[in-house]
Design a protein that fits this description.
The protein is of the alpha+beta class. It has one domain: Alpha-Beta Complex (Peptide Deformylase), CATH 3.90.45. It contains three helices and seven strands; from the N terminus they run H-E-E-E-E-E-E-E-H-H. A hairpin with a 5-residue loop joins strand 6 and strand 7. It is globular, with a radius of gyration of 16 Å. It starts with about 25 loop residues before the first helix and ends with a helix. The protein binds zinc ion. The site of zinc ion (ZN) has 5 residues, from helix 2.
């Protein structure tokens, strides 16, 4: 396994639609392992193939559940916590409710902002062995799935915000880029 480079906006691939996976072979399984390792190494809870420069409809998600020292602040442990999810060629078949979550993105370091999403989604996807399955997702898991499916559709999260917020984020990112040159 190897850790891949995570691309940062304004890289063009982040705004390009990815192609469906047609072969569920060892090359795909190696790529999925590399994506999981990259997600862990970057401290992310989700990663889409576009973010590592590959236009394939592949997403990995793993959301750790953390125990809080204060029981009043304790987040409920859901069945989707602490599991490695591989979503290949995912399709949202049902959406309901509304949720606003402060999202971050590995392709936008140090940018966090609120995005409106559906509170619950039903998704059909394939795993890395080509087995089709269905997921019912809520809360952060639903937010994360919608954020990552946007990535493989070539949509970055500021496109889901107001023009004003998007302009602020773009400026911040472009300024950051020029400092690094
Ligand atoms: Zn992202």
């Amino acid at each position: 396994m190897s850790v891949l480079d995570v691309l940062v906006w304004p890289h063009k691939i982040l705004e390009t639609k990815a192609e469906p996976v047609t072969r569920f072979d060892d090359d795909l399984r190696k790529f999925v392992s590399d994506m999981v390792e990259t997600m862990h190494a970057s401290g992310g809870i989700g990663l889409a193939a576009n973010q590592v420069g590959e236009l394939r409809r592949v997403i990995v998600i793993e959301i750790p559940w953390t125990e809080s020292p204060d029981p009043a602040q304790q987040e409920k442990k859901e069945t989707w916590h602490d599991k490695r999810w591989v979503l290949i060629n995912p399709v949202i078949t049902k959406k309901s409710g509304k949720i606003k979550w402060q999202e971050g993105c590995l392709s936008f370091p140090e940018v966090f902002d609120f995005v409106d999403r559906a509170a619950e989604v039903t998704v059909r996807a394939f795993d890395e062995n080509g087995k089709e399955y269905e997921i019912q997702a809520n809360d952060l898991f639903a937010v994360c799935i919608q954020h990552e499916i946007d990535h493989i559709d070539g949509i970055v999260f500021f496109q889901r915000m107001s023009r004003l917020k998007a302009d602020i984020i773009k400026k911040k990112m472009l300024r950051r880029g020029s400092v690094n040159v």
